[in-house]
Structures are given as structure tokens and as C-alpha cells.
Amino acid sequence: MSSQAEIVPTRYMEAINLGLADALEEDDRVILLGIDVGAGGGIFTVTRGLHERFGSERVIDTPISEMGYVGAGVGAAMTGLRPIVEIMFMDFISVCLDPIMNQATKLGYMTNGALSVPIVFRMQTGAGRSAGAQHSQSLEAMLAHIPGLKVVMPATVTDARDLLLEAVRDPGPVAYIENRRLYAMKGDLETDPLPLGKARVARPGDDVTVVTWGQTLRDCLKAAETSSASLEVIDLRSLVPLDIETVYRSAERTGRVLVVHEAVQDFGAGAEIAARVGEEVFDLLLAPVRRVATPAVPMPFNPALERSLLPSPEAIAAAAEGLVAEGR
Amino acid sequence: MALIRAFETRVSELYRDGEIPGFVHTSLGQEAVAAGVCGALREDDYMATTHRGHGHVLAKGADVDGMMAELFGRATGLCGGKGGSMHVADPARGILGANAIVGAGMPLITGAGLSSKLLGQGRVAVAFFGEGAVNQGTFHEALNLCAIWDLPVIFACENNGYAEFSANADMTRVASVAGRTAAYGVHAETVDGNDVAAVHEATDRAVERCRSGEGPVVLELMTYRWHGHYEGDAQPYKPEAEAQEWRDRDPLILAERALVESGAATADELAAVRAAAEARIDAATEAARQAPDPAPEEAFAHVFAG
Ligand SMILES: Cc1ncc(C[n+]2csc(CCOP(=O)(O)OP(=O)(O)O)c2C)c(N)n1
User: Fold this and answer.
1) What is the pTM of this model?
2) For a substitution probing ligand 1, which of B108, B128, B164 has the most ligand atoms within 8 Å of its CB?
């Protein structure tokens, strides 16, 4: 029996839609809330068809009222529902951070476990299409800095579906962050999901451990194809929980670690990973941990300027080769 | 009401003496709101409250010992000592918690109302909040959501005239909370919040509307806070005559007077109720004093669910 026949190339955004449909199908308590997620099908068409299939009590259009409906999602999660609330652009967490930062992630702890808040904050980011400084930010480090919040960033078609399902099944709050530059990406939907919290070696290699997540996985894999160095590319899949052990195990063999992310470099998640590697496996290192990330500026509108700031396969390959060259 | 009065009076003293850590906001003078509203609710109805929530939590049925121990930060507290005065909760009694973020309870209770409606729970969800919180976007966003979704939610505004040191009239051109509500097409009533019977009856009407699917109700309950915003605030911003006028309308005495006049209780019986409340608080205080602190590893428990 050829398993090839069962594998259908699927777009990342279709995989999200499948994940949403599966989540709504498998548990009646799951609802989807957001601006134009219902009959309109979402501004990127990610939720298309769900309203027709599950009805307006499960797939609920909200007013432009993020603090209200994200907070209501948290309250609903406390009282028996399992909401997925969509925040249209990740940048908009600015106007609804309280339910995420002070409510969902605190109430279970402050009540010593008497309350639980099974909610998914679904959002998307993705610089590189001149969306401007208010629609381009990757703020995952900000979210990962809040104790009690899991933060997942699917980089593959399979994870787009499976991490969403894992997030919905999780008993606590999870931020599920899509990258809209991946929406059209096609890939094979695999049927053996990795659990939330496990990193994946996306490509084995010997010289440099490249740690990444989200959209830049593609850039890293491209870099690995062209670089003169042999790159082992690790897709973290989630920042919280952070599967740092997989990074250590790879670093044991390579002795060199490069972290790549689309978010701005300063105070980013790359700094946390570099610090942990330095604290725990310093003796294994042949060179300092290096980062390739976006410089700390608001994203400019101009396409050429924007491109000049984002990590590229060329910059990643160059950084990896630089690490090999500077090795002790 | 007598229990809340005794609890808050004792908490004020314990805080002054350094026995209770953190921030404490008492509801002395506002007891009729807590008793009147919560007395009209079922045990499984949802309730969310504010930094000034001791009275609401007690009136909704929380255990007095657990409450006092929580304020002491003890392992025996309702939240194992990890919540404290501003975060005390008891979900088993529908008490979704006090909240230290002004206005945050209203979106949460909207969600509770949504659960009630979608899961067919038949529960009413009540958010207590001060008139100061009406200037937060959450009031307006939550009220609008409840209105368009016809949720069984009661917005119980405890209008005590001041938010911290600021008089309501200085912070809005429309001092009437009920008046501001009209813009959302939501039914509102303004009620004497020091008259427990009036509060109770208004809540009964609101509950009836909610349970019959007519959507949210705003109750504006006019009352006055006797103590400062926090314990120790000398309240230079309040005119003495105004404060005196409200102290003369002590809600507990008004309630007792009404009971005696109607023949429902004798003065002796009421004195016994007050004495019993005192004794209950004595016992809770002593138990809290003796209770252990949470074990050190508790600091790491329940960061993540499950
Ligand atoms: C978002 C937020 N802003 C400010 C504060 C500080 N604060 C705590 S209580 C309070 C006044 C609240 O007034 P009101 O809502 O009328 O309630 P009351 O204290 O009168 O019961 C303020 C400003 C806070 N806790 N949260």
C-alpha cells in the first residue's frame, strides 16, 4: 500500500481551516469568535465555510471590540466553553492585552487551580509585504514573557493544523501565531502529529545548529541548500514550552548555534535561547551563539527598505559560514 | 449585611496593625448593595467583582474562614494564599473572582453570560463595578456585546461617587450611569443602594429579564464609601457634610429599622445577629492567624493548567 496516495498537497491556510473545522467538530464546547470570521470567512479567507457548517452560535462575528470579545472569550473559557478568539493582526494585541496578560494567564494561578482558562488566542503576523509598521510585528517574545501562556508558531502545513488542534485541546491559554506569508505555501499534511512542546529537526547537518520558528524556517532551509556549511535546522514549533533539550543535543555535535527569527533582534527570543545555551552547554561551544533577526526598528513601508531589514537565506548562510570560520 | 460589616471592620483593624499584607479596599457603608444583589441570585449564578469585593464575595456565599485566611495569605485561604484580597475567588459558588484591573470583570462576565446562553445553563451573570470603571472601554464594549447577543448579564454599578480621589462629576459630563447606558439600548434602573430591599427588588426584576432572554440590565446602585479608597486614605477630597449625610443613612441601621418596624424582627434578635457575626469573625480571624503559609513549592504550582 502506497502511503503516497493518501498525501494531498495542502496550503498552509487550508490546513488552519481544517484544524478549525476538526476542533469545532470534535468538541461542541469549541467556538470561534472574531471580526468577520463568520459569514465573511475572514479577511484572508482562512475561516471560509465554517460559519455555514457550524452556524452562528459556534462561529461568531463580533464588533470591532477586541478588549470586549477577547475578554469575553476568557470569561467563556472560565465557565465551560473552549473559545478560539481571533485577533486579526498580532499588532492588535495592543488593545486587548489585559485579558491575555492579566486575566487568562493569571486566574488559574491566583485561584490555585480552581479556575482553568482553556482558550486559544489565534493571530497572524508576517512582514515583507509592505503592510507598514502597525501590521507587521512579530511579538511572540512579548507573549512568551508572560508566565502561564503557551506560545506556538506553526511553520509547516502539518503544524498549522496539528498545533491548532493541540492548542484547542490544551487545558490552559495558548497563543497560536500564524504567518500570513505562509498562507499560500503548499505542503504535505502528515498524519503523525508531534506533541506541542517538541521541537523538530527539519534538516540534519553537522556544522551549525540553526534554531528558528515560524516563517524563517523556509529561509533557513533555503540557506542550508546553498551554504558551504552543513546546517542542522531546528524548527522549535513552540517558544513556550521551549524544547531547549533538542537544541542542546544538536549543539553537542555541531558546537555552533545560530538563532534566526523574524521578530526584532533586541530583547527577542533569540536572546533567551543564546543565554540558555551559554548557561547550560557553554563548554561544548566552538564559537559564540549568534543571531540573525530584524534590526530593532518599526517596519518601514517601502518594499526595498523592508526587504533590507528582514532575515534572508543569504544572510543566514553567511552568518553560519562566519560561525564556522571563527570557530576555536 | 451584619457579617460584611463585621468582616470589613475587622479587616480594617487587622490591616492597620500589619497583620494583613498587600492592598486592602473595604466596602463599609456599601453593604446593602452586596446583600441586595447577591441575595437575589442562585448559588450557580456567576459573579465577578472588583478590588472592593469582599462584601460581594461573602454575600455570594463564600466561606468566611476561607475568605479571612486568603486575606492573610494562608494555605487555608480560598485561593491557597496566592490570590489575596484583590483576587479572591470561589468558582464552585459562581464567584469568578475579585479583579485588580479596573473594568476587567465586565468582559469576563460577558463570557460567562455567553457560556450560560450557549450551553443552556440558565444562569445569570453579574458584574460588580464602580462608577469609575464606566470610563473604561471595557464597560462600553462588554455592554454592547451583551446587548447584541441578548446575554443574561447584570451590570451592577456600585456608584459611590468617587474613584480613588476623583469625584464622578469631574470625570464625565453625564454623571448618571443609567443615562450613559441608554446609548446602548439597554434597560437600566437607578436605585437607592443603601436600601437593601430596594436593591433586592430591582435585582429580582433584572434577574427575571435575564432569565427570560431579554438581554442585559444595568443597575446603578447609589451608595457611599465610608473609608478611604484604600485603608489609611484620610479622604481630604470629600466634603464633611456629604460624608456625614451618608453616614446618617447607614444601610445596616436602615435595614434593621425596617425589620423592626414591619415586625419581622425584634431589636434583641437583631442584636443577636450582630453578636453572632462578631463571633464568626473572631473565629475566622483566629483560625487565619494560626493557619500555615503555603509551602514554598506552591509558588510554582498552577502556572500552567492541567
Ligand atoms: C486599569 C486600572 N487603572 C487604574 C487602577 C488603579 N485604581 C484602582 S481602584 C481605582 C478607582 C476605581 O474606582 P471605581 O471603579 O469607582 O470603584 P471604587 O473604588 O469606587 O469601588 C483605580 C483608579 C487599576 N487598578 N486598574
Assistant:
1) 0.95
2) B164
Mean per-residue pLDDT, A117-145:
96
Place A3 in a pLDDT band, splitting at 50, 70 and 90: very low
Summarised one tens digit per residue, pLDDT across range A141-154 is 999 999 999 999 99
Give me the architecture of the B2-288 domain, per CATH: 3-Layer(aba) Sandwich (3.40)
Do the Cβ atoms of A170 and B305 come closer than 8 Å? yes
Domain map (residue ranges) of chain B: 2-288
Give yes or no: A135 in active site: yes
Ligand 1 mean position to B51 CA, how many Å? 8
Domains and CATH numbers, chain A: 7-182 (3.40.50.970), 200-326 (3.40.50.920)
User: Exposed, middle or buried by CB within 10 Å (0-12, 13-18, 19+), for B145?
Assistant: buried
Q: Give A55 to chain B, closest Cα distance, Å.
A: 12
Q: Please give the angle made by the CA atoms of B9, B225 and B95, to the nearest 5 degrees.
A: 75
Spatial contact of A216 and A210, defined as CB atoms under 8 Å apart: no
The three cell numbers locating residue A56:
452562528
- In one-letter notation, the amino acid at residue A296 is A
Inter-chain touch B138–A171, beta carbons under 8 Å: no
Q: How far apart are CA B239 and CA B274, in angstroms?
A: 30
Angle of helix B267-290 versus helix B251-262 axis, rounded to 10: 140
CA A175 to chain CA centroid, Å, is 8
CB A67 within 8 A of CB B139: no
Q: B114-140 pLDDT, tens per residue?
A: 999 999 999 999 999 999 999 999 999
**In contact, B97 and A115? CB cutoff 8 Å:** yes
Residues of B in contact with A238 (CB under 8 A): none
